[in-house]
From TrEMBL:
Gene Ontology MF annotations: nucleotidyltransferase activity; thiosulfate-cyanide sulfurtransferase activity; ubiquitin-like modifier activating enzyme activity
Span of domain THIF-type NAD/FAD binding fold: 9-213
PANTHER family linked to this entry: ADENYLYLTRANSFERASE AND SULFURTRANSFERASE MOCS3, UBIQUITIN-ACTIVATING ENZYME E1
Protein name: ThiS adenylyltransferase
Protein's UniProt keywords contain RNA-binding: no
Length: 227
């Protein structure tokens, strides 16, 4: 790679070496959802050296999104979220290819594209179930994340089934604040980057993080049954 590339990724090259950094350029990631988690994932991973991202989201930016969806600003309302994130990522890193798909995951899945990793950034249980079904059918690893109020969950799914663990319904999440969204999205991003860089990742373990009424952080983990 050239001198500018090495300067851009200087701190990561110090972390895991030139060969690993170069290998990330060959990785492809799909992020399903471009809201709060998707914004954090895009910012955290978009300038990491991963070669290609695809954002999948048919939703547009609303003013009520901006306080917690850190990729958007006043003036973006009405624009497709996936397209705004594509523009943001490309402005931050010249070494990444970004695709924006303004359609549902169900429509996107019909294209049967190949990815090294799929990351769930939705707030919709039926869509997560569809992601799980697709990934199990294609032996595709994926990372789940959800957040509500002051708690959230993260899991790297490899063999376990999401539908075997969670009850699927169409309920909408309650109130939410920006910091917990960024926290959960960052944990997803860390799992993704470790996996893509060839570092160890604990799979099929659900991490549950919450703040109690005293503001104390609690973390629990659960080993999920595998198929």
């Amino acid at each position: 790679m050239n001198e500018e590339f090495n300067e851009y990724f200087n701190r990561q090259i110090k972390l895991w070496g030139q060969e690993t950094q170069d290998s990330l350029q060959n990785k492809k990631v799909a992020i399903i959802g471009s809201g709060g988690l998707g914004c954090t994932l895009g910012i955290a991973l978009g300038a990491s050296g991963i070669g290609e991202f695809t954002f999948v989201d048919f939703d547009t930016v609303g003013v009520h999104n901006i306080h917690r969806q850190i990729g958007f600003k006043v003036g973006d309302d009405g624009k497709y979220k996936a397209e705004v994130l594509k523009e943001l990522m490309e402005s931050r890193c010249p070494y990444v290819k970004v695709n924006a798909c303004t359609e549902s995951f169900e429509e996107f899945a019909k294209k049967d594209l190949t990815f090294d990793l799929i990351i769930d950034a939705t707030d919709n249980l039926p869509t997560r179930a569809a992601i799980n079904e697709y990934c199990m059918k294609h032996n595709q690893p994926w990372i789940y994340g959800s957040v509500e109020e002051f708690h959230g969950q993260v899991c790297f799914f490899e063999k376990a089934s999401y539908e075997a663990v969670f009850q699927i319904n169409d309920r909408k999440p309650n109130g939410i604040a920006c910091p917990i969204v960024m926290h959960i999205g960052s944990l997803q991003a860390n799992l993704a980057l470790r996996y893509l860089a060839g570092l160890s990742v604990k799979k099929d373990v659900l991490y549950y993080l919450s703040f109690d009424n005293e503001g104390v952080i609690n973390t629990k983990k659960f080993n999920l049954p595998t198929a």
